[in-house]
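Feature request disguised as a bug report, sorry. It would help if multi-protein outputs had a clear separator. Right now it looks like this:
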Amino acid sequence: MEYQDYYKLLGVSKGATDKEIKRAYRELARKYHPDVNPEDKQAEERFKSINEAYEVLSDPTKRKKYDQLGSDWFRWQQMGGNPNEFDWTQWTAGGAGYGPGRGTQYTSFEDLSDLFGSGGGGVFSDFFSQIFGGGGPGGRRPHRRVRTDEFQQIPRQGRDRTQEVEITLQEAYRGTTRLLSRGGQQRRVKIPAGARNGTKIRFAGEGNPGQMGGQAGDLYLRVKVRDDPRFERKGDDLHGTVEVDMYTALLGGKAPVQTLAGKLMLTIKPGTQNGQVFRLRNKGMPKMRQEEQHGDLYVKVDIRLPEELTPRQRELLEEMRKAQE
């Protein structure tokens, strides 16, 4: 027969008070109750073990006998005794002045067999049945001191919901709102500036409703930012192009640059090469939750050549070519 460490099963010390034992039992029972873990055999077995441990440790008479047995058991192990040769006879139900029909009597308590049925080899272990009686084949099952409705109506939190919302890059730059409908009611929710593809925004209590008085779940908006043909986004930085005519590239000047905040004029130095990249600090995307901080905008020069030349322009260019020879 295998010794059952009831203190370890409940996660309490051997000196735990009745209040500590009860609190530990309630927390574990709610966690592993079959109603919370449907079709989970491991959770069901753990729930049975938890109830068995509490059946013993919550009863002063049973706990005293169990503690005495535990002292003998651990002393036997420390002396190098073979666990299979331990003498259980002095501790079995009926010995040491303990057995069915004696000890504390309970009334109006829940029979655990109502929860799990009468099949499957019984609710309590062989260890319990041998030491405390009952629960064996043909024997009565001990009764748990817990109301039948205590766990059957456990408040359950509602499931979280995830909903995708699509916004433009411009909306991601400035922040935006969306109108959501739920249960016939509409609510306007805010999407912060700087949101990226895949950003999740949590709205507490806006998910599916809870059951048996439980809290509602949460709503998560998953942001999808549409592509913008003007820019490529890399983190909080933006990458784009600026068109510069041949004359400005050669001689210098100004070229208009489109940003998400509007247009600005970029200074082009004389002799600017095609493909050259200019960095515009703080002209990128705002950092989410830190909107005063921005990434940068990188613009690559795209020099545009004239498709047609006037005779005079051609003449001047020919002169320039000859001057280089």
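(second protein starts here, but nothing in the output says so)
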Amino acid sequence: MIKKIIVSICLLFAIGAMAQQGSASPYSFYGIGDVKFKGTAEAAAMGGIGVFPDSIHLNLQNPASYTSLKLTTLAFGGTYSNSNLRTNTQSEKARRTTLDYIALGIPMGKFGATIGLMPTSYVGYKNQSMVQNTEIRRSFGKGGVNKAFLGLAYKLTSKLSIGADLGYNFGQIETKDILFLNNIQYGSREINTSNLSGLTVNTGLMYSSKIKKKYDFYGSLVYSPHANLNLTNYRKTALIVYSQDIEQETIVPGSEIEDSNNNDKSIKLPSKLAIGTGFGQDRKWLIGAEITWSQTSSLSNRFNDISKGKFENARRYVIGGYFVPKYNSFNSYFERITYRGGFRYENTGLLINNKSVNDMAVSAGFGLPVGGRLSNVNFGIEVGKKGTKANDLIEDKYINFTLSFSLSDKWFVKSKYN
């Protein structure tokens, strides 16, 4: 009963947290927003590597890993982000806190299942600019896309597992643009709203084998086919009265016009292929590398008249791993701590002013055992840079602090005594 209450509280907390603004980047205006990392905080601390199966940690990147679970595992985590946004002439700081995922993994012999909720993308920005005292532009964005998913995996042999996730994506994105011209009595305001929904599939293979009975070798393959997000779009335009308060708007009576007839469309989400490999020693150390290719060139913007941002195929390179001094130490708690680290570099697939928007970061973290050795609290830090000041773009230098819980126990065991 207590476990059911804990899960219910976590799910309610997740639904509330998903409504928060999870991005401060102007780049989130394009496509479906700032696409989020779809893995656990433990994986993020290793650069985002997803090639390792684990008996007490969920691997949300490769669904084939669910067969490695030995205990029922409840995992949830969040991030506190601090961004420093810069152009050639301006700078701004932003902070935000988000819940990144909540998932429950259940072992079932040769099968493994997972159910969870996580964000797919975030939209969130607020800008104001002036052009030689002749015009003032204000831009706002909020919302995003969330994904509820259900995964199932099966162990084909002692070394090879296969799995798949089915996800339902849903959400709303709203962007607002305001323009005031000098010597013009009223300004113009345009609000674009999109309601998004659609199904996605993520499939995976995971291979593991012993080398000389001491070392472990892992191979990982993940493929997500193209999927469609259906959009119901609305556009409202109006005349507004100028105000120095960036949050204040007064609509001129009778000027608001709503257009909801010809803007519905479908966005094709890109297919993705990830190949990774790992090598190490069980319960001691592991290091791995992974390459991901995404057909992001098939992505488009929410409205057909948004033409500035374009898309190209994306690539992502990751290397990372962990080290445990002595997992079963009775004398030193610090020897049971898991130490993690990693590096990633990616071309995000977004192309603005003929300049690719790249993202690179280094990360580190550690896992603290609690309640014995099965459950743990994980801390991580990621320091990175997205974008550039060249070609009139924006450079985002960020620091992300992550906190997650991985709670493992034997569930669904019938009591032998009353």
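Even a blank line would do. Unrelated, but nice: The chain has two helices and 20 strands.
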